[in-house]
Amino acid sequence: MRERIYSIDAVRAVAMAFIVAIHADLFRGLGATGNAVNLVIDTVGRFAVPFFFLTSGYLFARKCTRTEPAAYVRAHLERVGSIYGYAVLGYFPLVLLVAAGGTARAGGDVSSAVLARALEALSPLGLLYYGDSVLLFLWFLPSLAISIALVYAVVAVEKTRYLLPVAATFHVVGILDQSYPMLVDVPFVTRDALFFGFFYTSVGYCIGSWQWSPSRDRSGLYLAATVTFGAIHLAERYVLGYVLTGDSIAQGVYVTKYTATTPLFATALFVYVLSRPTLGKGTGLPWLGSHAVWIYVVHPLVLFSLVGVSGAVELLGYDLGESALWHVALSTLTYAGALAISLFLTRTTLLRRASRVTSRDRLRTVVNAMVGGRN
């Protein structure tokens, strides 16, 4: 049995901190300095989601050396699918309540608004592929599952030599669409499994299947590459957001998804993490990282609740959004609250009871069809 790579879970915990900070708009709107700091946080934090896909592909490759790939993929898809199912069941009634409340305040037809939002949430394409029909943040889970399924499909037909070139081709289209629309206009969403997750999962799989273990002796070189690509990544986003547009940092923060240098930055960091497998051992970070997926699922609920509290306080004449202390507290409390709820859900019988009425059995039928298994 291979030893645990503590550094992967440790960096997962850090990645979640960046994701929360990005979603909480940490320091954004606090003048030019606040916007500049937010731009740096947003840029550095772009490693986070790719890191989860890289890890997924890498662990899949490692598992393939000692277990039947179809069995691993089946278990992986059932686990991710179950988590996504819980998330959809939890958020679906909440988004309907939000739609009803907003429409009622505006004096509109509440019934029609709720029905329209329900139909939007249950859109087959948005629900099963893009994963954003109920809540935008949930896109990550279907993409993670589908990306592994795509990699497995290539592995199953023994065409792995084409895996990375094909995945990279799709990803280039996605990058051009997201950050260089002046060069190409793609008429559909590209932050998905095919144009995003497939690439990073493929890179992770290739690193794992090449039986290459980054040496600790060269970890300094990998870290230097990470810092260098990170600096180039920041420069690229600054040029795209300010030099080419003529805007200033005081006017706002340049918002984009991922750019051409994101793969270099994220992959260099991943290789560095592999070269230091005990990084974080003896701290609480690996433990935090082991709960990262559930923290990701829960954190929007906590974040929106805290933003609601901030809005209520603003009605009393206090604008918390102008306080740097509140910005820090918002991110910190969101992370801590999401962790607390995650622990509650996973350490009580709530999920075990829910599993009796959720989609595990249905998922198994679908998954078996995808990976060639039988009931």
UniProtKB/TrEMBL annotation:
<feature type="transmembrane region" description="Helical">
    <location>
        <begin position="162"/>
        <end position="181"/>
    </location>
</feature>
<dbReference type="InterPro" id="IPR002656">
    <property type="entry name" value="Acyl_transf_3_dom"/>
</dbReference>
<keyword id="KW-1133">Transmembrane helix</keyword>
<keyword id="KW-1003">Cell membrane</keyword>
<protein>
    <submittedName>
        <fullName>Acyltransferase family protein</fullName>
    </submittedName>
</protein>
<dbReference type="Pfam" id="PF01757">
    <property type="entry name" value="Acyl_transf_3"/>
</dbReference>
<feature type="transmembrane region" description="Helical">
    <location>
        <begin position="43"/>
        <end position="61"/>
    </location>
</feature>
<feature type="transmembrane region" description="Helical">
    <location>
        <begin position="324"/>
        <end position="346"/>
    </location>
</feature>
<feature type="transmembrane region" description="Helical">
    <location>
        <begin position="193"/>
        <end position="212"/>
    </location>
</feature>
<feature type="domain" description="Acyltransferase 3">
    <location>
        <begin position="5"/>
        <end position="341"/>
    </location>
</feature>
<keyword id="KW-0012">Acyltransferase</keyword>
<keyword id="KW-0808">Transferase</keyword>
<dbReference type="GO" id="GO:0016413">
    <property type="term" value="F:O-acetyltransferase activity"/>
</dbReference>
<feature type="transmembrane region" description="Helical">
    <location>
        <begin position="82"/>
        <end position="102"/>
    </location>
</feature>
<feature type="transmembrane region" description="Helical">
    <location>
        <begin position="12"/>
        <end position="31"/>
    </location>
</feature>
<feature type="transmembrane region" description="Helical">
    <location>
        <begin position="219"/>
        <end position="235"/>
    </location>
</feature>
<dbReference type="GO" id="GO:0005886">
    <property type="term" value="C:plasma membrane"/>
</dbReference>
<feature type="transmembrane region" description="Helical">
    <location>
        <begin position="134"/>
        <end position="155"/>
    </location>
</feature>
<feature type="transmembrane region" description="Helical">
    <location>
        <begin position="294"/>
        <end position="318"/>
    </location>
</feature>
<dbReference type="GO" id="GO:0009246">
    <property type="term" value="P:enterobacterial common antigen biosynthetic process"/>
</dbReference>
<feature type="transmembrane region" description="Helical">
    <location>
        <begin position="255"/>
        <end position="274"/>
    </location>
</feature>
<keyword id="KW-0812">Transmembrane</keyword>
<keyword id="KW-0472">Membrane</keyword>
